[in-house]
């Protein structure tokens, strides 16, 4: 019995020694925090692109894998561009000017943001069409990009 206790103590001592000699894991590097003060200006800047009829430049704020929610379900960026061309332009120029209001931004972690607001399309005869939207954006080395747009 004494031999068994000695063996158990030796095994326990070896286990404790082995675990105490392990080097600690490297600390997890926290993702750097993006500059959230640039989210709203990024969105406001694209109104100028829309208003001068540069739909190609307007679309650049969308990530290439972004989705845009329609009543039938989400579509990709190329389908979204076609939707905008058909619904809001005539011969390549916008039928209305675009503006945003009630913009609110909430960080989602260090590099994502949720933005809600209202868009306003003002036609040449001053009638307005407006709706609410929710955007999910991600910051990368290319700046802030929209990952998902749910507008109504």
TrEMBL record:
Pfam families assigned: DUF4440
Keyword terms of this UniProt record: Signal
Superkingdom as given in the UniProt entry: Bacteria
Database matches in Gene3D superfamilies: 3.10.450.50
All copies of domain DUF4440, residue ranges: 44-146
Signal peptide span: 1-25
Species of origin: Pontibacter mangrovi
Keyword Ribonucleoprotein: no
Protein name: Nuclear transport factor 2 family protein
């Amino acid at each position: 019995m004494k031999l068994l206790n000695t063996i158990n103590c030796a095994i326990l001592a070896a286990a404790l020694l082995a675990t105490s000699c392990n080097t600690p894991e490297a600390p997890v590097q926290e993702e750097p925090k993006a500059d959230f003060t640039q989210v709203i200006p990024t969105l406001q800047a694209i109104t100028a692109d829309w208003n001068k009829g540069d739909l190609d430049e307007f679309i650049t704020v969308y990530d290439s894998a972004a989705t845009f929610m329609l009543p039938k379900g989400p579509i990709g960026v190329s389908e979204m561009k076609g939707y905008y061309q058909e619904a809001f332009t005539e011969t390549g120029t916008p039928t209305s000017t675009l503006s945003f209001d009630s913009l609110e931004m909430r960080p989602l972690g260090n590099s994502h943001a949720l933005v809600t607001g209202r868009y306003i399309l003002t036609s040449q005869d001053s009638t307005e069409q407006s709706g609410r939207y929710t955007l999910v954006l991600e910051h990368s080395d290319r700046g802030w990009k929209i990952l998902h747009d749910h507008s109504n």
